[in-house]
Structure formats: structure tokens, C-alpha cells
Amino acid sequence: MRAITMHEFGGPEVLTVKEVPDPEPRRTEVLLEVTRAGVNYADIHVRSNTYLAPVKLPYIPGNEVVGTTPEGKRVIALTQGGGYAEKVAVRRSLHWEIPDNVSDQEAVPLALQGNTAWHLLFTVGRISEGEKIVIPAAAGGVGSLAVQLAARIGATVIALASTEEKRQLALDLGASAVVDSSSEVDLAERIRDAAGGPVHAALEMVGGSTLHQTVAALAPRGRLAVYGFASGELTNVAVHTLLQNSITMAGFWLPHLYAADRGTLLARSTKGLFAAVSNGSLKVIDGGTYPLADAAKAHRSLTSRSATGKVSLDTSK
């Protein structure tokens, strides 16, 4: 089969298509014929060797796919690598059948980005109707879904985005206000101005100064859910800062839910995501679909911040 295989860490050029043996599924796994592979910022960290978990070379990246089972069922699945390929072995507890009225393009971000947005909001952030929440990268894969999920329960969404086009998209998706995130100068003050005061909760995935600015925008007893450091700048938040306003700060990494309640949490959220797409209350933004061999181009699109919504690979091309 064809697969994108990394033999070294580095830039997009290390992503090369090769013929490799088909994976051999274990007893707890099923072999999928992959039709679409999701491209995520976690894959950028894997490629550059800055991922939360180390990977051993050679390595096939990709953690979410759309594919078909040997019985012909169309499913989405979470993988632990191996997604950028024509076939992948996935755990039986981590794949879910796609409803007939949901397309592959609509389904591809739901396994990883959809579940990440859902659990950031409702499991970690505990967002409820009437609360004000900051959502970064609001036109991106996770952000565009999080904006809609938060708005549909009646939360007031303050969306961060770097261009006028992206900010307009966030408004179209249900954000109540938008803030230019291309500059970190006075970001906390601009968030509070847009929100009409401090916010109850925030998501954060940039790191560096943006993390500190986001904390400063929180109201007393505010909640912060951290799920990345896209800037590459790791930073610390002083305990004194958290104590001053009783701030709750929690990290989130989706793989920690893989074994939770034998996948019950993920099964429940995936069902909710499918229902929202089916009834039209959740719209998937297509950020571009690339042939498998053009994985490097897909990564460049993601890191250049030029893409909005979901970037994916078509394994049939």
C-alpha cells in the first residue's frame, strides 16, 4: 500500500510517499480501507519532533481517518499514527459508523477535532448557557467547530482570528464578537472590551505571551482549557496569578480519553457531533483536500495559517 512515511524529523519535505506492507491488525483491531485522512496541528508537532509523546522512526503520521471496514461500513476512526495511508489498523473501540446523510468531507474532522472541541468545552471547560468564552484560531479546524458548539448552547463566544476574512467567518458561525489575534499587544484588554468585561472561560492553544494575555482576560473563578502551544513557546503561569482570581487551569490531550469508560465518553460525544451535523446546526468548513502524495503541501497550508477549517488528504489520489 501507499503511505506517507517519515524517516527523519524536519520540515514538510520529510513527508514522502512510499510503498509499505499492509498493517496487520491485532485481535482488538480492525483493518480499514482509508478514503480520507485528517491533517492536524498535532501532525506538525510529530513531524518536527515536538509532539507530547515521542514517536519512533520510520513513522506514518495521521491520527484520524474516514474509511470502510471489511464489512463495508463507512466509519470515522481515531488512530495512534498510521493515518496517512491507504490502509490502517484501528482499535475497535475507536471507530464509529457514519450516518448516511453525513458526507466524508463532513465526517473527517469529527473523530479528532470535533471530539477535541466538544470535550474542551463541555468536559474541561464546563461551558453553560449565558457564559462568555474565548475561542482562539476560530476559523481553524477545532476553533470553527468550537465556536458553533458553544454558540448553539447559548454561550457568548469571543472569537480570536488573525485576518478580517477569518473573523467574518467566525461571526458567520455564531460568534458574538471577534478580536484580531495577529498582535499580542493589549490582547487581554481587547478581549475584555469585546466581551463587555472579563470572561468566564477560555480555550488556549498558542502558548507564550498569548497564554498570559488570555489568563488576564478571565474573571474571578474563570476556567482555562489549554490544548496546545502552536507558537512553539512553552511558558509557565505563576501560582500567585492563579490564586489572585481563583483561576482553574487545565491541560487537555484527547488520547487520555481513549481508555476512559471503555470509550463511552468518546462514543457519546461522537454521537452528538453526528447529530449536530445531520440537523444542520454544525457546519464543517472545508480547508482543502490534497492527494495523499501532496501531504507536504497540506502541512505548508496549515502552518502558513492560510487555510480555514479542515485540511485533509484524499488517499484515492
How many distinct domains?
2
- Kindly provide the name of the CATH class of the largest domain: Alpha Beta
Instruction: Provide the gyration radius in Å.
Output: 19 Å
Quickly give the structural class. Answer: alpha/beta
Helix content: 25-40%
- The CATH topology of the largest domain is given as Rossmann fold
- List unreliable stretches of 5+ residues: none
Largest sheet: 7 strands, mixed
Termini gap:
13 Å
The beta-strand count equals 15
Topology as H/E string? EEEHEEEEHHEHEHEHEHEHEHEHE
| CATH homolog superfamily of the largest domain | NAD(P)-binding Rossmann-like Domain
Give the assembly state of these chains. single chain
Mean pLDDT: 95
- CATH arch. level architecture of the largest domain: 3-Layer(aba) Sandwich
Q: Assess the beta-strand content as a share of residues.
A: 25-35%
What is the count of helical runs? 10
